[in-house]
Amino acid sequence: MKRILLTGASGGIGRAIAVRLANDGHRLILVARDARRLEEQLSLLPGSHEILTQDLAAPDAGIRLVEALGERVPDVLINCAGVQELQRFDNSDWLAIERLMRINLLAPMAIIHALVPRLHPGSQIINIGSVLGEIGYPGYVAYGASKGGLKRFSEALGRELRDTGIRVSWLAPRATDTALNSPEAVELNRALGNRVDAPSVVADAVAGLIQSPRTSKVLGFPESLFTRINALMPRLVDGAIGKQLDTIKAHCKEKS
């Protein structure tokens, strides 16, 4: 049994992770900004767990969250909180972009920065990314930048902590059926024939990483293959995505 700190615990993927890990017998500290939703979720989980309310968009969220832990030190940190929007970059609101970058990238970095000195050998950090952090994709420019930054951060941090016994893992789901997806994103996935996973698929992958840690994992086929092609022969991916561009732009949300 491990003590696990899970951010974004009230979202679709976060809820699925919480259910899976609670059923596996772990003790959870669930983090989200909506206390009511956290309380509702807590009542449905087997075992004894705790909640912490924290808005991760706040500049000092990482420090405040770690301070709120008190003497409790997690064995596993799972950074799952995230936001996204399907929209052309030039139509995006800049303040919304800054908030996205803070929640998706800066908040995980801030939490880890404050928490690492307290972690023990054998501890694990799991950062939930996205296949869009592996492949730059139109309509998700800022989101891809945030998840791509999280990928490189995870990679570099894992190498830096190699001699401490602390493991860092990067998990990149493909499209997943959650409320994070706007109606436009749902329609785009349908128009392009993209496969969409249930949140439980991601939860199972997280449970697998806790049992058998590894540096990185991309979920789904052909997405996992596509990420390798993008790394080796990006021009091929340029061409493939170029054929989708009109469809993507047609589904982008207009600036309100």
UniProtKB/TrEMBL annotation:
Cellular component, GO annotation: membrane
GO terms of molecular function: oxidoreductase activity
Domain Ketoreductase: 2-189
Annotated keywords: Oxidoreductase
Cross-referenced SUPFAM superfamilies: NAD(P)-binding Rossmann-fold domains
InterPro entries found in the cross-reference section: KR_dom, NAD(P)-bd_dom_sf, Sc_DH/Rdtase_CS, SDR_fam
PROSITE patterns for this protein: ADH_SHORT
UniProt-recorded name of the protein: Short chain dehydrogenase
Species the sequence originates in: Marinobacterium nitratireducens
